[in-house]
Amino acid sequence: MTTIRKLWKENICYKALLLILLLLMLVPYLHQELAPLAKIFLIWGYGYIIYDFVTGRTLWKRRSLFLLLGFCACYAVTIFLNRETAFTTNLKALLYMAMFFILLCGSRRTEQNKETDRGEMLRREITILTRTMLVVTFLLSLVCLMTFLLNLSGQYPLADGSLAYLGMIDGRLWGLYNANTGGALNAISVVTILFALQVQKDTGRAFWKAFYLISLVVHVSCLSLSGSRTALLALLAVLSIAVYLWMPMEHWVKRKRKPGRVRLFLLRVLAAIIIFMAGYAVCALTGALFHTIPRGEVQRITITREYREENAAAETNAQESANGKIDEGMETGAAGSAGDIIAEAPSENTETEVPSGEITSPVRTDGGVLTGRPILWRAGLQTFEKHPLFGVTREKLVPATVPELSNPAWEPDLTAGGVHNGYLTVLICSGITGTACLLAYVVVNVWNFRKAAAAKKQRKPKKDSIPTLRKGAIALLLLFLIMELMEARVLYQINFFLFLFWLIVGYLTAEGEDAYEKNL
């Protein structure tokens, strides 16, 4: 009972339940069904913040937190200036972001606890959240992999009129969600599992080690089949950097005297290159092996909006009349693009809207190797030049940027994922003022972390799991920062990626600021 009370008091239960909800909401169908539950967590979160403010104010002692709240204040001004466009949606996003900033980046352990208790509580919190995330992502990825093995392919309508896809689409594994979303989720899980295995090597049970290894195989398989280059290259880059920075190369040199710096540098670079090339080869080989598996005929799964009719008899008749057109469209789309699927599968009750993700258009020959992203980036920069001070808000980004496109054929990609660059998205949505607050937050915490690292070098290192956990958090943060070059997920739109990113930032900034203050 004491343990449960501690978990509740430290807000671990809230984080774990919200983590599960946000992961499930990555599935389009579950998103529309579970979205109302997010309001409960909004009320719960602000209730906890108010309670903490009245009692101990442990969430308000991080100095750098006020820079994030300054970003929220600037974005509030932006919302007011652009209140004619989706004012309610932008306001909801602001409330969620402010809540996450306070709960995840403002938390400080109570001062009356002993240092050992604080370290033990931190390990427990990270262990619970890590295992919760990996169990849910494993189940989601396993279902996605089964859609490939069973050769399932289909589409279904959402409440807003758009179409969602499942299974294999255009030679890529979409599974339960967009292929790029699945690839990013797999990459995050792979990095987490590798560092979790390092922690489990000394302190873990055999059950969790076996689970991590099985999960690793499933996630690598899904990542190979998803065809997400951004997730794959970001993962390989992070693993290569981790090998370069943290692999103890001295043990590889069979000489009594310590090797020189140049030799160590060359060994680390060579190891990083080998890891990158080997990882790429493993993913390519895995994808090729899966495609050689005999899977029989494609099982078409098509759900139309007739199922939403109240009259069951009319529902059945409508479905039978629509099946011919839908199946014909799916056969054509199987060899073409996802955009072709929509164009080839119209029915009287099905709107032809573009699903989320990287969807190709029938007439687009100027995309290049980056699939049209430079075109979106140039249009986004032109939008920023017209609204440099406070920006245009996230919900106004698309209507404000569409007129700037050099080729209107890329509008579906802009509508689906914005300008596909997190850093440019901040500039467009929040302008110079909001961007300055975020940059100040980064500079302050990098300075704190640098001072903390310098102080720790002077002390005798302790043999526990905290250094490994810190390295894992840094690796995940680096993975996010690389993926944000091609996507925009960690601000404005409330999802699992935003929550996990700021959870990691909260852990690292808390450690850096605490260590810095101890050595003042």
TrEMBL record:
Transmembrane region positions? 12-30, 36-53, 65-81, 87-107, 128-154, 174-197, 206-226, 232-253, 265-290, 423-447, 468-486, 492-510
Asked if the keyword Membrane belongs to this entry, the reply reads yes
Q: What would you give as a GO molecular function for this chain, any one? A: ligase activity
Keywords from UniProt, A to Z, are: Ligase, Membrane, Transmembrane, Transmembrane helix
Which Pfam families does this one have? Wzy_C
Which compartments is it annotated to reside in?
Answer: Membrane
Bilayer disposition of the protein = Multi-pass membrane protein
The keyword Transmembrane is annotated on this UniProt entry = yes
> What's any one GO cellular component for it?
membrane
What positions does the domain O-antigen ligase-related occupy? Answer: 216-439
- Leader peptide range in chain numbering: none
Instruction: Report the PANTHER family cross-referenced here.
Output: LIPOPOLYSACCHARIDE BIOSYNTHESIS PROTEIN PA4999-RELATED (PTHR37422:SF13), TEICHURONIC ACID BIOSYNTHESIS PROTEIN TUAE (PTHR37422)
> What is the recorded name of this protein?
O-antigen ligase family protein
Task: Give the organism, scientific name.
Answer: Hominifimenecus microfluidus
